[in-house]
Amino acid sequence: MAALRTSFKVAAVGAVGASAAYSGYHYYSTTNVYFTAHAESLPSDSQAALKKMEWKGFTEMRLQSAEQVNHNVKKLTFALPTEDSVTGISPITSLLTRHTPEGGFIPVFRPYTPISDNDERGTVTFMVKHYEGGKGSTKMHSLKPGDSMLFKTLQEFDYKPNQHQSMLFIAGGSGITPIYQLTRAILRNPDDKTKISLIYANNTEDDILLRKEFEDLEAKHPGRFQKVFTVSKKTSLGDEVQTGYVDKEMISKVWPGKAAGQKVLVSGPPPMTEAIAGAKGMAGWTQGSVGGILKELGYTKEDIHKF
């Protein structure tokens, strides 16, 4: 097993995403410390009529629309309680789903990170990847407009504007959704000067989620946001997507190296997280010790957050 870990290359992994990677360690606790999120201040141009959701326990919401994004990903938009409601959630906050499978007795809990803004009126949107045998993703993909689901907030990372001078995001597969949520929140806040670098790895170009959205953000915020898409199987001839694994060389090309005021977020399937930053501890309940590539580059536990 040790030899297998040593030889593992951080391929662009799309087979397992962060929703699977960090869904397994929250289900059984019902303590508020895991299920409570503090809403951030809405942007100054928000309309006065907007009403932040009061997330008390689980809230039932009905599916408004479902759009097939690629072979195993759907964009699911749910209606909030009123047309003027907004989620009001802070980055990075997921919404924890709860359902009881047909014929079962034990409820299933899974967190999904919205890709819609916290002040979007009336709806909340997710990008959900389906995993074979996945109880949460199978349920989400089976929903038809009009069907309902229960949701509750689950804060994953407490971010405050300008608390870091620069941030490096390393994501794989559907682990991109919390990264997208935070990237959008930082760049749309004119008072937040944080600089962001993103490395996003997948198996193929078809697996790159939110590609256009990230390309638009890079074009709109030159000097503040740069991104690298990398895949293990490239089909196009352009230079917009690299071929290869996330390694020291790739990180060094977009990141100046360890310095004060930096923070690294790693969001992807467990094998990828372990190879880049070390495995999480206690079956995912704790951050665990630092390992992998980032340890070799001199980063410490204080420099890194793993999802």
Write a concise keyword list for the protein shown above.
14 strands; 2 domains; disordered N terminus; 6-stranded antiparallel sheet; 29% strand; 6-stranded parallel sheet; Rossmann fold; globular; 307 residues; Elongation Factor Tu (Ef-tu), domain 3; alpha/beta
Question: If you had to describe this structure to a student in words, what would you say it looks like?
Answer:
With 307 residues, this protein is of the alpha/beta class. It folds into 2 domains: 2-16 and 158-306, Nucleotide-binding domain of ferredoxin-NADP reductase (FNR) module (Rossmann fold); 23-155, Translation factors (Elongation Factor Tu (Ef-tu), domain 3). 21% of the residues lie in helices and 29% in strands. It has helices at residues 2-7, 18-21, 32-35, 135-142, 176-187, 211-220, 248-254, 270-277, 292-296, and strands spanning 51-52, 59-70, 73-79, 85-86, 93-99, 108-112, 123-129, 148-155, 166-172, 195-204, 225-233, 241-243, 262-267, 304-306. A 6-stranded antiparallel sheet has the order 6-5-8-2-3-7, covered by helices on one side. A 6-stranded parallel sheet has the order 12-11-10-9-13-14, with helices on both faces. Strands 1-4 form a two-stranded parallel ribbon. The chain is globular and about 50 Å long. The protein starts with a helix and ends with a strand. Mean pLDDT is 85; it is low at 1-41.
